[in-house]
Amino acid sequence: MSTETKWIIETQDLNRVYGDGEQIHALDQVNLHISAGELVAVMGPSGSGKSTLLNVIGALDRPTSGKVYIDGQDLAKIRNKDKFRARTVGFVFQLHNLLPTLSALENVEVPMMGHIAPWARRKRAKELLELVGLAARMKHLPSQLSGGQRQRVAVARALANNPPLVLADEPTGNLDTSAGNDLMSLLHELNRSQGTTFVVVTHDLNVARQTRRVVVMADGKIVREDCIGSPIEEDLKVWSNSELGRRVIEKDIDSLSALGISREQMESIHEIFDQNLSESLPEHDD
Ligand code: ADP
Ligand code: MG
């Protein structure tokens, strides 16, 4: 580890144990490093500790032992956790948690209340709703918005105080595939344009593969960390491990035509490969 690496999140031997009698290790020796500007997916079966991890990182819950550093600050040493959260971490939950009687605009203003002048927070809330594509919906109540739009408001709200880190716990969990994909595109866009670091818990492999890194949890432990290429790179990896994919890659037109795949179809698949990154085609030996 280089001393110059700027971890926005660093955990050291993080444990969170629930219960007195029969203990549950919701987090079991978790060591996680995430650099500023990353967009990371956290996956794993239900009960594997994903929400606990996010809650501990976001100072909503305390670890039983171990350390959490956020942006270099030891969480245990932060006295005013509310202030810390307001400035440093934005949250997006599966259920958006918008206040039902407030408009989209007012909901986004809530985290800025108390420390930002009314006119300035209105201006900022408007800008944020424009940023998430809801310029035309500012006066709407949550009940007048679709699930995807409500999650966009929740994202805008999470960004209100311009935190360097946003933690999202299954933000696409209640959305259909297309709204889920739109939300992920938005997070990508914000990750690029604002430099915000996102940690996104998801069950959805489709959502996860839109990120560059996937952390997989099981029984409170990190059991795998995968760096993911672009979707097409991933497709290529999968293809090169399948019999059909191999035949296409090797231009085995005889056996392909037996499968009803024409030379034109094969050529056009190759064109896509070539346009993208044929050089990264994984080598395989037979
Ligand atoms: P995930 O988000 O991956 O579904 P959680 O982090 O919510 O998992 O839970 C991890 C484990 O900790 C589970 O076994 C869960 O039952 C347990 N757990 C979570 N919160 C509590 C709590 N407040 N009290 C007792 N056990 C809990
Ligand atoms: Mg959870």
Based on secondary structure, the structural category is alpha/beta
Cα(first) to Cα(last) distance is 37 Å
Q: What is the radius of gyration computed over CA atoms, rounded to a whole number of angstroms?
A: 22 Å
Count of extended strands? 11
Specify the biggest β-sheet: 6 strands, mixed
Query: Which percent range describes the beta-strand content?
Result: 15-25%
Major beta sheet, strand line-up: 7-8-9-4-10-11
Low-confidence parts lasting 5 or more residues at pLDDT below 50? 278-286
Overview of this structure, please?
This protein has 286 residues and is α/β, with parallel strands linked by helices. It has two domains: 7-228, Rossmann fold; 232-280, no CATH class. It is built from eleven helices and eleven strands. Strands 7-8-9-4-10-11 form a six-stranded mixed β-sheet. Helix 5 (147-158) packs parallel to helix 6 (177-194). The longest helix is centred in the middle third of the chain and has 18 residues, at 177-194. The protein is globular and about 70 Å long. The two termini are 37 Å apart. The relative contact order is 0.13. Residues 278-286 have low confidence and may be disordered. The protein binds adenosine-5'-diphosphate and magnesium ion (MG). Adenosine-5'-diphosphate (ADP) is lined by residues 18-19, 24, 26, 44, 46-52. Adenosine-5'-diphosphate binds next to strand 2 and helix 1.
Question: What's this model, at a glance?
Answer:
The chain is of the alpha/beta class and 286 residues long. It is built from 11 helices and 11 strands. It folds into 2 domains: 7-228, Rossmann fold (3-Layer(aba) Sandwich); 232-280, no CATH class.
